Amino acid sequence: MRKTLCFIAFLCGSQTLWAAHYQAAQGDVLRVPAPVSGKNITVKALGKHWPVYSKDGKYIAWIGIHLSVKPATYDIHWFAGDAASVHQAVDKLDVKKGNFRISHIKVAKKMSSFDQAALKRIRADQAAIKKAYQASVDVKPQWPAMIWPVEGIVSTPFAAQRYVNGEPRSPHSGLDIAAPTGTPVKAPLAGKVLLVADMFLNGTLVAIGHGDGLTTVYAHLNKAMVKVGDDVKQGDVFAEVGSSGRSTGPHLHWGVQFHGNKVNPLAMLGDHL
Ligand SMILES: [Zn+2]
């Protein structure tokens, strides 16, 4: 993600405002400093409102860019103040195509399809995950920089696109981190456990809600040590790495959704300021 590249002056009514111009790629999470000051700072971009966090007197919006947002230039609308006096500003955001890995594999036809019973389970599993993503959680992440849930090697990057026998599969919705079975998995941020389940493809899966529309999922676990409704603090061990479900070896599949957008977990690590 690249930050401010240039500033463009433009006229709005009788005031000259300055708009920053940002660049980001599909799957990024952009941190944008507020160009407005005052009370009730809000921001809207890509058709949604985004959380604004304050730290050391600075107000910064976190904007998630779904991995399949169309590459184009978008407006970031800022508002501050009350009904009597609203200040506004508009920043610009260029979304570029993500540089995602593409691979082709060939498998015997019967290996690449599922029977009706399996498809039924897969659909039920997907519905349970979707419900967890849409759950609202009463947790207020004040500055939601995450820590790594496990230490290991990234074996499959975010949004990797696989073609099986020439047919495109869904882009990889998270990040795979290879680590031995039994490696502790830590909560990257405080939150509440939304889902613990055994799934056909994902194996043992945990979903954690962190508030402000931010949810993380962990799949192919060896075991989960939490139950739905448990609170976790950043760094709490809640599961072990495994190879459950459809998996070719022990690894953690880590997915992040931010206001319904699948974003790169790497973009949530550290402050990135
Ligand atoms: Zn994965």
Describe the model.
The protein contains one helix and 22 strands. It has one helix spanning 116-134; strands at residues 2-12, 15-25, 29-33, 42-45, 48-50, 52-55, 58-64, 72-82, 85-96, 102-105, 153-156, 161-164, 167-168, 175-178, 184-186, 191-199, 203-209, 214-224, 231-232, 237-241, 251-258, 261-263. Strands 11, 14, 15, 16, 17, 18, 19, 20, 21 and 22 form a ten-stranded antiparallel β-sheet that branches. The chain has a six-stranded mixed β-sheet with strand order 1-2-9-8-4-5, with no helix packed on it. A three-stranded antiparallel β-sheet has the order 3-7-6, with no helix packed on it. Residues 1-16 have low confidence and may be disordered. The protein binds zinc ion. Zinc ion binds next to loops.
Sheet with the most strands, sense and barrel status? 10 strands, antiparallel
Mean of all residue-level pLDDT scores: 88
Which ligands are bound? zinc ion
Instruction: Write the H/E string, N to C.
Output: EEEEEEEEEEHEEEEEEEEEEEE
Number of helices: 1
Kindly, what is the distance between the CA atoms of the first and last residues, rounded to a whole number of angstroms? Answer: 11 Å
CA radius of gyration is 20 Å
Summing up helix and strand content along with how strands pair, one would put the structural category as mainly beta
Query: What fraction of residues sit in β-strands?
Result: over 45%
Provide the helix percentage. under 10%
In one word, what is the shape? globular
